[in-house]
Amino acid sequence: MKNLVLSCMMAVFMNMANAQEPETVITYAAGDFLISILSEGGNRGNANLLKGATEEQLKKYLPDGTFPLETQVFLVRTKDKNILIDTGYGKNLFKNLKSLGVDESQINVILLTHLHGDHIGGMLRDGKAAFPNAEVYLSQAEHDYWTSLTERGENARKALAPYRDRLRIFTPAAPGETLPELLPGIQAIAAYGHTPGHTAFLIRSDDSKWLVWGDVTHSMPIQMPCPDVALSFDVNPEQAINTRKSILEYVVKHQITVGGMHIPFPAVGKVAKGKEEGYAFSPICLCEGI
Questions:
Q1: Distance between CA 33 and CA 29 in Å, rounded?
Q2: What are phi and psi of 108, to 5 degrees?
């Protein structure tokens, strides 16, 4: 009996320890594709990062003055390609890829939503291309903006430099227009505003539709019910707001599953009209992962 009690106690302590370790990888089936969310971690963002929120809105949706601010990377595996959408900070990225049995040399394509540091941090290792066989896709407007800057564009230029012979520049289209297909099953949607060439990627396989929307939102608790709230990092706040509204309307109308780089892990779910105002987000259960 004593040994049984000790065994039970040990199991409880092990479960408690495991419960404290946050999951960093989850994979969902999307038609014939597999979409994995790779967490780069995060903490809390302060409400002073927001622009245009009223005191009433802040009190209602961010009562402690903070919101979860995480960073995610998406890996899309098709029948013949391994596709990264962004590379995060590069903090957990390589460990997470390894846990899926994917080597850096096996990444065929990198789709960049934009060139902020928390989206391109994993592009380099020791100053060299971390993904030696990957083609890099970037919107024309984003490329032109960051490469034309002097000091502020230095990190973006460094991240792109080792890939210059494999850089594929494209022009996305607005939601509802004819979207360019970058790869079989993957189309580009203009989501300008957060940065001048910010891009979302629509993934289609069979009847499954997913939109990886990058930084369309940062603070889900307030920007979903109040999409008029902008972020201090938005290059063009008014355009970012209009983009957020049009994309939210688009995904609701077409019942598209959404994923975002700053939506708390597992970072994917469904959007619906809010009961009181704006929109509401319902995350997909971790239990649906494979």
A1: 6
A2: -90, -30
- Angle CA 18–38–142, to nearest 5: 155
Answer whether 45's CB lies under 8 Å from 71's CB: no
Residues 193/236, Cβ–Cβ less than 8 Å:
yes
Per-residue model confidence (pLDDT) at position 247: 98
Q: Hey, what amino acid is at 2?
A: K
Non-local CB neighbours of 111 within 8 Å, separated by 6+ positions = 83, 84, 85, 86, 137, 182, 186, 199, 201
DSSP 204: E
Query: Is beta strand 109-111 parallel, antiparallel or unpaired with respect to 135-139?
Result: parallel
CB 278 within 8 A of CB 268: no
DSSP per residue, 105-133? GG--EEE-S---HHHHTTSEETTEESSTT
Can you say how many angstroms the Cα of residue 159 is from the centroid of all Cα atoms in its chain?
18
Put simply, whether the predicted model's pTM sits higher than 0.85 gets the answer yes
Q: Which residues, given as ranges, of the chain have pLDDT below 70?
A: 1-22
pLDDT in tens, 152-171: 899 999 999 999 999 999 99
Q: How would you class 221 by CB atoms within 10 Å of its CB: exposed for 0-12, middle for 13-18, buried for 19 or more?
A: middle
Give the pairing type, strands 167-170 and 135-139: parallel
